[in-house]
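Record passed on here:
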Amino acid sequence: MKIAFVITLMDGLGGAQVHVRDLSLWLKARGHEPVILTGAVGCVSDDLKAQGVEVIHVPDIVRPIRPVRDLRAIWALRRKLLEIRPDVVSCHSSKAGLVGRVAARLAGLPVIFTAHGWAFTPGVATIPRYIYMAAEWCCGPLSDHIICVSGRGRRQALAAHIAPPGKITTVHNGMPNIVVAPRQPHTPPRIGMIARFADPKDHKTLIAALATIRDLPWNLRLVGGGNCDAERRQAAELNIIDRIVFAGERSDTANVLQEMDIFVLLSRHEGFPRSILEAMRSGLPVVGTNVGGIPESVVDGETGLLVPFGDVAATAAALRTVIGDQEKRAQMGRAGRQRYLDHFTFEHMVDPTLAIYRTVSGLGDSK
């Protein structure tokens, strides 16, 4: 089966990029033909090309709403898709989901949209939220099927009347398994957050919360690209910058997580974050915000602790709990690892995803 993936950016590591990368490599290893069409090439697309996956640069696919460029992107995608003639088009990320579905329809090809997080979700700025809501109302009917990476995402789509229930399926993200070395606790405990310094991530609440529990022993490592000047200034003003490492972007996530004792992900809104699955896979307890699909991965009180978005006091209390109880950390980490194995391995994601691709393409089990 030949699958054309359309995605806005492939120049940095994010949930959608990792999804397309891992799925493409898995498909290629099993004799399928993945092709990536993207508006921005870089480290992720370079890695795929090095492993034999075809990547086509379509520079008019851009993240902001740009009507003229968006029309050019649709036309360029249509032309490329007619050349490639894939069995199915699989669109990822909000902008690629819009231009990709229109282009696929103009090319007469079956098309799927994977919603890694709706751009009209609560927490998104008002004007962009309504623009994307209107765009999804127009593009929803163009989709042969929509995959949501969380049950909450599916409920949002149904509530917004994006498509009928039979055309929307929840398929949770999954990650390839790894061998996890026995975890040795560090002194002081090492807290880590892997997330880009950009909306919707909320590093500032984490820094503010840690400043209120400076009486406890802890170190913090913040891993991720983007501009962190504001967070550095905040940490300096709170006199805790000497306990924080701004590590920049790292591609060796498994090694980074092995160096941590507690994983934190604070966000304004989320789809179904892979960083949490990676932390669970590594046997780490998770402190996360109770938004999006996070409660579908983190079981509050069992595999980690959930806190309201922006709540400094609740975040500090959760961190105090896990910092101060090494046995609880270990117990939550073991429970998280088991929950990953039971629900969020790569096979849990890829099997239903490929079944949808085959159904929509009309190929069934024939290829």
About this structure: The first helix runs from residue 15 to 29. The CA atoms of residues 57 and 202 lie 32 Å apart.
